[in-house]
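Notebook entry, structure prediction.
Reason for the run: the old model in the group folder had no record of what sequence produced it. Starting over properly, with the input documented here first.
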Amino acid sequence: MPQKTSGPWLPWLAVLLLAVPAGPAALAAVTPSRPNILFIVADDLTLTALSCYGNALARTPNIDRLAAGGTRFTRAYCNATYCGPSRASFMTGYYPHATGVLGYASPRRELGARATWSQHFMQAGYRAARVSKIYHMGVPGDIEENGGRDHNGADDVASWHERYNSPGPEWRARGRGETLENNPDGTKPVVGGNTFVVVEAEGDDSTHSDGKTAAKAVELIERFGRARQSAPRALAQPFFLAVGFVRPHVPFVAPAKYFEPFLPYDRLPLPPKRPDAWRDIPKAGINYKTSENMKMDLRRQQKAVGGYYASVAFMDAQVGKVLDALKTAGLERETIVIFTSDHGYHLGEHDFWAKVSLREESAQVPLIIRVPGRPAAVCPSLVELIDLFPTTARLCGLEVPARIQGRDISRMLDDPRHTVRDTAFCVAPMREGFLLRDDRWAFIQYAEDAAQGVELYDLTADPKQDVNLAVKPEFAEVVRRFKGQVAATLQSVRRNDLGLTYPPSTPKRAKKPPN
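New structure, fully documented this time:
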């Protein structure tokens, strides 16, 4: 069962006392018109692996039904292309280069006593609970049973009234397992770490971390539902429930039944690849995991895709349990539901695998927001994960802090053609990479002075990003304009109330590969 954690409470006692309203007077300020928040975030999920985003092979009926009743965003971007800085960003409302949290640490030191996203709701009388990975946790390391860790990762204790972890067997799960990465002769056993491993596992959903997470989320929803029914309407306390699933992050482990639709693996298509795909891009633009450096032949690549899809199907089934519980508890009509991922993922495009890259497959995320009473829609406007904090605050009638850097996109839920930004901004700190994406162009720059190279893609004419136009003289003016925009964006990001010196004197830069 998920484990409730105690954590280092004393250092944050003063913060918590400020965050939690006291007594009936505070609760009386919370009216039933303030909806609950159910925030569901997957780990390493590319939108290209969801059937509601057009994948005919995917098995995601539960995420699809959420999309069918909500607003599905087709151009949503993370603010960093690996877990730590992305999650710290959307939970604090600050860009990674504002806080300097570019790796895997908690943002609390840089944030001080300022409220995080969930803490802002706590201050307004909401009950906040976390289940599993919301802030960064190493997967599988912080998730493994008996791993010698407390399973909290970089969690922020002040952000929750309750927090629960869901340790599972991960790569040690019993079943048919194979290490695909750097195992060309097949002699390497199944291993842990940030490694492409597939395990067709024995047992049912409840054996694994995400199954435990769903069970705890269901339990909390049932409890919240009973509390709402028993309390006088004027005293009913809304909730902010954050549910983090760790799949489809490696290892690709799930009960064997989720693999069956994708067998045999050799029938699974791989994305088309140009033989010279890296010829016109800078070295910094070659992702840290490729078919070549992972030593994955065609068979292993196809099995990696099958393992990923099976992990997505397993995660989708757990999302379904949570959504069903919300409906059964009578809370569906008073709960805003958000589903997303911390970043995207490559499944062989450009011969890249995994995250970190600033190409579309890695920088884009699925984003679905379902608000009771709002019509279903598809929104093509540019949005970022950092926009979730101000948007939910506005939807729930809370003050939107002027200090946070995201933008309120709530109007898009009534008018999907509405726009709030001309560009989306995303970073890959371990590559010193910066992405600006507008309606037509994707511009990627490596190093703040672009000394490590640039890429420019015309997404209208070249949606697969096959041709880097930055090397062509006729696009020099477009490149020059975007370089200026990157500099101006960073300057704007660093103009904030955090009181830090930029670049940070002790930046939490990711020197090791993502986990």
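Summary: The radius of gyration is 22 Å.
The old model has been moved to the deprecated folder.
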